[in-house]
Fold each of these.
Amino acid sequence: MSEPDAVRKRGEEGTLGPVLKKTGERQAEFRTRSGIPVERVYLPASEESAFAERVGFPGEYPYTRGIHPTMYRGQLWTIRQYAGAGTAEESNLRFRFLLDQGQTGLSVAFDLPTQLGLDSDDPEAAGEVGQVGVAIDSLRDMEVLFEGIPLDRVSTSMTINAPAAILVAMYVAVGERQGVPPPALAGTVQNDILKEYVARGTYIFPPRPSLRLAGDLIAYCVEQLPKFNPISISGYHMREAGATAIEEIAFTFANAAAYIREVAARGIPVDRFAPRISWIFNTHSDFFEEVAKYRALRRLWARLMRERFGATDPRSWMLRTHTQTGGSTLTAQQPENNIVRATLQALAAVLGGVQSLALSCYDEALALPTEAAQRLAVRTQQILAHESGVTETVDPLAGSYFVEALTDQLERRAESLLTEVEALGGAVVAIERGLMQKAIQEEAYRFQQEVEAGRRIVVGINAFTDETAPPPPPLFRVNAAVADRQQTHLAALRRERDASAVTRGLADLREMARGDGNLLPPILTAVKAYATVGEICGVLREVFGTYRALDGL
């Protein structure tokens, strides 16, 4: 019998037995949010010889302990709060406010019409213009959005998917107008259309032409924007829709495999584009599972890239991730409690070794965040970075028997689920059959049943409620005139621009879309002629068609 096994046997028979007999435990079993059983006590594994192979040293394969040898001792994570609402002018003011508060990168939220390729004067955009993000109809809006913000000194993340190529083209054009050449632009675009079919729903075209568009953007950035991350593959939204941490890992990696194959099929070696792949994951409140998740993510991805996709550049093995704390964990009841939730989740993300972080603000269960709420989110990150001491050593929870065991379990279970998806034919086939969507819906339903039955406590919802709680804090309201103002700007743009240049640009795009060439050059030409997001997407709708979700999903 090994020493750890002997210690466990002695403890369970001696110390533990009488206590269990006398008082028992709070419940019959304990499980993580993903359903992994939590043992009472964790001891060293009986076989420790795999430590170097599975845990190892920070900055070395398989990067369990972090992608950099010094981690936060060398450079802190990027503070990148998600922001944008109303017009470009209003969002520009919010960006400047956040930068003044010490934020170190920008993250742009676009309104739903922009995300769905609709102009602000489209009847289908009614009631949504500028409501959950900034309204961007044309290059003119983008110019205003970044006015006074030097793009050679600030990196920008853009959460945009179906029209991602259009917004990146606008960013390139704004950079050129500022005197910043494309190779000097730093930033990230989400460009992860596959997860939109699974969880978020802001798709336009069917999956296969959408995958082509995503691949076109990646291929273009490889050649023209070497400092720009052309895709940020997202587990965040699947987690918000109800996925477990295991499903978040597996389904996100399945989507990643589809993108890698799409780009590799164009003859681009994996090591030319894989180092620029970035990620966004969600951090919920099951603290140790979330810490372990990031360690498991890095290890599994490194192994997949080296063994399955044949990457030989160590930069291709490194998983660089942004994270945002879980918006779906916030409650409208007792909203001040959300400050604690977001802080707990942020600490888990930092202990997990992320490269960039945004906190969902405490008032976001009620409305878009106020300036005060976003300032508090920035200050929370600054306190973690400069006062808590958690940045003083690399991967401080390494060696915890519990954390190492959870890391192993998450990796094993996620890889098993990923293998199932790949065996079906990969992410696109699984999406077309609705398999990922169904799995997430079933998990969301199971979780809600647990909450409603009281088996899972949510403070202020099904326990520790308070009918005498004070009213909610003052909320942010989008200017009621935003749609009228945006439509006025759009009408003026259409009068003033060179209509013939727009017509030529859209015609060239239509012709290219009917073939198999890269769509970024004609999109950039149309953007510079001040063609609108709606006009460009309208041409692509003509060629590619539109996607309708499967019945029941």
Amino acid sequence: MFTLGIVYFIAGLILIALGASIVVSNTEKLSSILKISYFISSLLFIGIATSAPEIFISILSAFDQKSNIAVGNALGSNIANIAFVFAISLLFLKIEPSTFKEDLSSEESYFLKFLIFLSFLIFYLLSDGVIDLKDSFILSLSFLVFLVLYKTLFDQVRHSTNTQPSDKITGVLFFLFFGLSILLIGTEIFLRGAISIATMIGVSDYIIGLSITAIGTSIPELAASIASIRRKRIDFIFGNILGSNIFNILLVIGIVGFIDTSSDLIGKNYIYRDILMIFFTTLMLITIRKNYNLISTRLINIILLISFVVYQYSLYQ
């Protein structure tokens, strides 16, 4: 049983990585066809694409009444996206300070503030250890606010050219949905393996969600980030991480209360620990983005990686 769980886990992970690769490459092409900025395109297309594994896991876990996995995965993925994916990407790949704009663009500033707001909101919603219908409704309203904000900024930054989309968009959309289908299949297989492993080694669903599942579903973000940095598109990786973290809160956690009405989570102390880690990593992301310096950024990245290792170790104590 344990061996079968590992096979499911690895096979699902491979399919998730493959599906995410297809989705990421085609969302890039789609953004080019639609002629929108790199940040705005990465925030939505790459952000939601790389959050697809977390979203699918949230739906499947909620239907199985294992919402601890969904919530733990969302929180753990947000932590891993910054402390692991973002830190690794900037630490081991040479990035010149000139690659960053000196000031945050208006759209970057808006969505960064929105992520901070969501961090406080999810802290409040999870403070009672429960995700219920009311909480999901509040997150749904917040998602509508996000869509309005995105539509407004989308219209502002879209290129002025009136060139009509070519026939290529049909092929891009086909492969986009094909990649999402692979993600869906891979996620179900992956989830079966994760639950099996958790049961066999006696680790709670919530901890599995925070660690194994969260790191595994952050692989698409890592692949997209490395590809973006190699093309010297730092605004692309920033949009990817920012968008993914926003969708993890609004959609991954927001879905739970609508599906699983018995979604009691673990104790408040654990929730406080995880939310505080999210605040810390978000603060580090802001620091790097607003004050990029090669030496100080590498130091911050090392601090992030060490804190991530310590955090993961603490989950099993």
